[in-house]
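User: Modeling request: complex.
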Amino acid sequence: MSNRRDFLKLSSLASASVLMPGFLRAMRFHPLAKEGKKLVVIQWSGGNDGLNCLVPFEDDRYYQARPTLGISPDKVLKLNDYQGFNPALAPLRELYDQGYMSLINSVGYPNPDRSHFRSMDIWHTASGSDQYWDSGWLGRYLDHSCSGCAKPHTVLEIDESLSLAVKGEHHSAIAVTDPRRLHRNTQDPWLVSLSNEGQQAAHPDLGFLYKTMTETIESAEYIHAQHKIHRSTIDYPKGNPLARQLKLVAELINSGAETSVYYTSLPGFDTHVNQRNKQNRLLGQYADAVAAFVKDLKQNHQLDNTVIMTFSEFGRRVDQNASGGTDHGKANSLFLIGGQLRTPGFVNAAPDLGNLDDGDVSWEIDFRRIYATLLKDWLGADDEAILQGHFKGLRLV
Amino acid sequence: MSSINYRQVKHLLWRAGFGPQASSLDLLNRRTPEEVLNQLLEDSDVRESVLFSDMIAGNTGEEIQNRNQMSGVERQMLQMNDRKFVRSINVAWVRRMATHPAQLREKMTLFWHDHFACRLVLPRLVQLQQNTLRVHALGKFGDLLKAISYDPGMLQFLNNQQNRKSHPNENFARELLELFTLGRGHYTETDIKEAARAFTGWGFNRKGEFVFKSRQHDYEPKRFLGKRGNFDGDDILNILLEQGRTAYHLTEKIYRYFVHPEPVHEVVQQWADVFYNSDYDIALLMKTIFSSAHFYESRNMGARIKSPIEYLAGMMRGMAMQIPNKEGILLIQKVLDQVLLQPPNVAGWPDGTNWINGTSLMMRMKIPQALILGKEVKFKPRAAFAGNEEGIQIQGRMARLLQTNINWNLLHKQTRKLGEADTVEAMREFLLQVEAPHLNWERISPYLGNSDKGMQFKLLCMRLICTPEYQMC
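Assistant: Request completed. Predicted assembly structure:
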């Protein structure tokens, strides 16, 4: 919490910043991440069925559990002797072959929860399943980054509002879908005038509100200025909600924006009924969007500085249900994509369908070990402070 | 206008309810906090348990049973219908907060909804729980605790239906100790295990009624908080109520919610003693707080960041504003991150500065432009990530959803005789809970346009509402 003097100092800076040319203002911000490394998170919301993404085509138990929903071996895009892509993921085949993908099986956490909300909370906060935390892991990344220099736009969520993952205890990310609109909204003359004048806050929380307002106006200006620098020349698929988000991310990364984490999401994976068409459509959108995004980054020599992590709050039950769908399950697969992965291909063995946890894939790798690795080895952050505990790193980035 | 009395009355109305009403603007100055408190207590003495009953017609318990035999498509249809009912309860509640005279009861019901936070899908269970909270909101905490421990919604949400002698489920027992009574650090893991055994067999039937399944109950002796006996669930609740710590934990939480985010230990202890010694009389505790000198200290006035529900219901109340479109009322909750009946988890909503980030603050500054001026604003809520749990899909243009009826006459007539500077001052004192002398005529007039007086008055209200100061209560 800022005290009044800090706030006044900050607000005088803010008023000066309005008069300062964009390039000078940009210099006031210090990049946080190690050597300009970028982390892009893609959230598959709703519980993506991992078994129909990385299909264990050599396992009879898979086909027994999924008499109609199973993907037959001749359709699977085989990646090794045992697992292969759902054909809807075909656009990613090339990335896999080039060593740009790490596929991690059976990711989860102890005492898994099958509620979307609870499980997503656990993934967002990185708490244990018996703990309720108020802040998210990437929000705490902001909290713990070089104290005082973290700006809201260090972490950007490409959405209309913030998810818990990017809300910290003291700092939070900023949400943006359209930099021009964000800029216009924050340039309301009344708000700018309030922010410039500053306020002798009667209460610490009121000071916090003023500080937040000033930072938001500054960050909106920064994002707006940056996104105009570089316009993407790659064709992104049309009518694809994830492609729209990733295009903005690529433009910001390729323009040299100092943002180190981008958070995006693709909803709709809660496939209890008639799963096949729904999931294939979503996976197709995912693969098309990611393929264009990677191409864009590569063309601008940014793929080596970027890691994309894709996750979902849980996998689905191994048995299909009576409605051509699947119900909520437990552990799931997680994808990493980037130009500098240390373990390309499959990181661990396929889920053991002979050793299920009450009909679900059991967890083998705690997701917080992946968070710890990305925080420490990629972003150069204090993983133990952020995750409030020690989680053994993996050889990933 | 800005007498100490006036500020104190408004402070009381914001904390014990959802703020002053537009219609009472000229009354506020003429009544003392004591008079207003007595009125609040009297108005809140109603114990209506029939709230929303008309909406649940046809939604009987049998459906819980049949659901398992339905096809996926049938079940989805039913779930859509369920969500519609739950949304109706949500909207009816917000409107009630904004208009009902039983302000203190509604505020306490909101507090208990946050304390006994459940996220339920079946409207019947939502309604049962709502009524339980509302009936006991100002009664004895022991009665409330017992009622909620027998509540089918709570038993479902915390998996007590699966709590059997052969295979105990500790979820309910854990939250009972950690969140509902003692607070973290005042019990052991063994206490949780033993308490869970005492609640084995507590469940509900397919009609949504409490049942005790004696064959699943563990009748062996238990050891709990240093006592030993053949305890059942009721015994556990009684032992928890015997602990002074339970009174302290609750009083501290009430202090944070109703007085100041940072509690003063001595004051909490003093009020906790009152609470404990009155057999947990909630109405008496609240009366003690709201009539204490401590409550009216300047440290505590305007020191709370409004929750989105306080922001929304408070604005509807203060501006004599109706939002006819249900979707609009839901949309505001969704974009500001507090949807009634959908708390994030059993710990309830994180309060205070947790509500605020750059994005939510900008939303709080944008929404009034639509509500007060009918401006088209572009934003949409986060996509629902789970079709069968998340209830709100907003369709249509924002300006239509957020279209309002405001009784401008109520507000305007009370300032019509005043000059420009005095009007600014009068509205500032009415709308804001922190002193903000800098928001004066000189400061605001450049932002009021050059149009007619009526429009200038609307703009004045909007500018005052679009300030960080307005977020405080």
